[in-house]
Fold this sequence. Notes:
- The structure is a homodimer.
- The first copy, chain A, starts with a helix and ends in a 15-residue tail after the last helix.
- In chain A, a hairpin with a 3-residue loop joins strand 12 (362-364) and strand 13 (368-372).
- The first copy, chain A, folds into 2 domains: 5-32 and 297-407, Aspartate Aminotransferase, domain 1 (Alpha-Beta Complex), CATH 3.90.1150; 47-295, Type I PLP-dependent aspartate aminotransferase-like (Major domain) (Aspartate Aminotransferase, domain 2), CATH 3.40.640.
- In chain A, the strands form 3 sheets. In chain A, strands 2-8-7-6-5-3-4 form a 7-stranded mixed beta sheet, sandwiched between helices. A 4-stranded antiparallel beta sheet of chain A has the order 9-10-13-12.
- The longest helix of chain A is centred in the last third of the chain and has 22 residues, at 298-319.
- In chain A, helix 2 (45-59) runs antiparallel to helix 10 and helix 5 (98-112) packs across helix 6 (127-139).
- Chain A has helices spanning 5-14, 45-59, 64-67, 73-84, 98-112, 127-139, 151-157, 180-189, 209-212, 280-295, 298-319, 347-356, 380-396; strands at residues 31-32, 92-94, 118-122, 145-149, 162-168, 193-197, 216-219, 234-237, 326-327, 339-343, 359-360, 362-364, 368-372.
- Chain A is α/β, with parallel strands linked by helices.
- At the A-B interface, helix 2, helix 3, helix 5, helix 6 and helix 10 of A face helix 2, helix 3, helix 5, helix 6 and helix 10 of B.
Amino acid sequence: xxxxxxxxxxxxxxxxxxxxxxxxxxxxxxxxxxxxxxxxxxxxxxxxxxxxxxxxxxxxxxxxxxxxxxxxxxxxxxxxxxxxxxxxxxxxxxxxxxxxxxxxxxxxxxxxxxxxxxxxxxxxxxxxxxxxxxxxxxxxxxxxxxxxxxxxxxxxxxxxxxxxxxxxxxxxxxxxxxxxxxxxxxxxxxxxxxxxxxxxxxxxxxxxxxxxxxxxxxxxxxxxxxxxxxxxxxxxxxxxxxxxxxxxxxxxxxxxxxxxxxxxxxxxxxxxxxxxxxxxxxxxxxxxxxxxxxxxxxxxxxxxxxxxxxxxxxxxxxxxxxxxxxxxxxxxxxxxxxxxxxxxxxxxxxxxxxxxxxxxxxxxxxxxxxxxxxxxxxxxxxxxxxxxxxxxxxxxxxxxxxxxxxxxxxx
Amino acid sequence: xxxxxxxxxxxxxxxxxxxxxxxxxxxxxxxxxxxxxxxxxxxxxxxxxxxxxxxxxxxxxxxxxxxxxxxxxxxxxxxxxxxxxxxxxxxxxxxxxxxxxxxxxxxxxxxxxxxxxxxxxxxxxxxxxxxxxxxxxxxxxxxxxxxxxxxxxxxxxxxxxxxxxxxxxxxxxxxxxxxxxxxxxxxxxxxxxxxxxxxxxxxxxxxxxxxxxxxxxxxxxxxxxxxxxxxxxxxxxxxxxxxxxxxxxxxxxxxxxxxxxxxxxxxxxxxxxxxxxxxxxxxxxxxxxxxxxxxxxxxxxxxxxxxxxxxxxxxxxxxxxxxxxxxxxxxxxxxxxxxxxxxxxxxxxxxxxxxxxxxxxxxxxxxxxxxxxxxxxxxxxxxxxxxxxxxxxxxxxxxxxxxxxxxxxxx
Lengths: 411, 411
């Protein structure tokens, strides 16, 4: 079956989540397929940020910690994110960055399995996950090691020396989706703790951490949660792991920070994984994105996301045959996140030419063009036009192979 | 000599830094003596925050990492803060929270002194500093210990087992100011690394880290730098410590994060102490505060700050004799930061009664009323009126001793 533009127009007309697009301030003339790198701006965010800056900070000053609930923001927004990922209230907290939270979670995992010495992950995991694990191992004097496998070999590698299996649910480069429940069960069967990085999945699909029996998780606020550039991240600790503590024992994790005790006494709840004073303005922006996401029907978002991806891949095959592209993302819905990636020898200059034409995806070294689908605001016709413009770029050879990717942008 | 209101009016009239007050959006009817807890809002901040939210995030989206220099913000703002504290460009970075940066700096210090096992601090240091040190010691399996002394005993306690001396330049509770150069020299004489927490001094007084030969430092963005609630913090590593690395080896500290290498290779410059993606909106707000501070003549600010403190203490003695107050801050200028603290058995309800009358200081358990002086925007007459209102509160006994401090606000 050949796809035609009218099919995509028809899908937009009957799209039940289409009204959410109007809640975002998307620029004219841009097809934004990079919401998995930096989510778009909700229209409600500027007013909320103005309020926190001008009214709460400017007028109420220090009193806002109580008067406007700054003191509970990490728990409040954390609880809201928990609803998106199948957590029980009190198991999630907004804090720090994904990297810093990974450090806390890995350290907690090693605490939970004191007799085991291996952190197991996949070699193609997002680099910061691997760096943080190596950094922790270095700090611990190499008493622990990071073992890296191909995705296919992870299962066999969960030996009885593995303290924690650390995986990212959706691979940042290929979009490959792990079966969370199955992998968690395998980790548990081998006596290991399971730690998931939800950076590319939270907000993009239904997640059931409780149902899957997950132990620990981290995730990102600035991708599908639309929390703004560098938005604070989140963490999850299953309620049963009450004895796990944070190695970053800052005062915001103390049971009673304002008694200014000399000795650290961790809060009995998830608050113990907080560290320093959180960035309130950025946190307020994140809350708007999360609130908006909570209004949307997640199963419908997932269905739309999968259809956007499937249609994109089919259009690439229909329109770009013989142009040197290879679809590197899994085609099966059950194995794909909310993105489709293409490899091409000239991926970098093609990405740049697309951006100049208003189609924003991103490049991942060495040869990947990555297109993310944010079902909350992407239209089906976005997919059609993106491929049409890509075809035009290739046909006209309107990309300059001499460009180098020294100026590559942030994931 | 008896102080009278006209003296304070006269000082305001001839105050050379008085014009800076007009650069802040201070609320009507408030005397704000809590800038050492949360600095006031610069009038330029809302427009800059609007710009970063609506234009940079909303319109330019992911492209802003390059187009608007988000990618270099931590270094750029760090360099500006460096000018306030006597750092050489490339020795300072904005990142994470003060607590998280302390963890990095303590870990780096232990790396620099691998044969020593003691972290030395003072028992009355700000709690998060002590908690972070204990948390690191716990993580390291108690191979290292935190030794706590009274301020007077610190000097004698710097034995040859001490890896790092960790002190806060201005004590959060008493306002006591360490002699940075002298203490650093003592630490070095004993072969220890010197780590300063500048939370209550950066932006309040001239600081010369290079001149004092300091090894490592951290500091806070939301106090005297007026960076907004929970603003990102900063860190300093002396250029000579090129081999010190961060235990929080996140991708923003990698030499080339966008090559997405599997192995961590720390940046050769201060960037290696970055961890995850920084909160851009909060960072943009911080930059405005720092830029404003850089316009001001720091020696004049320090002189004004000291005079504000001295006059406050003298007025307390003049107006509040017999009311049960004791001045706990050092009276000698060379030993005092930018605050004056009083102890009183009813410190908590008195603080609350003052706040209700528009005089905002804060309470520090168990019995301290803390008044901070931000010379950039506090007037001399603020000091007069604050003491006059405090006298009125005491005379009328318009405080309710039954209040409990469960709702205490954040430092």
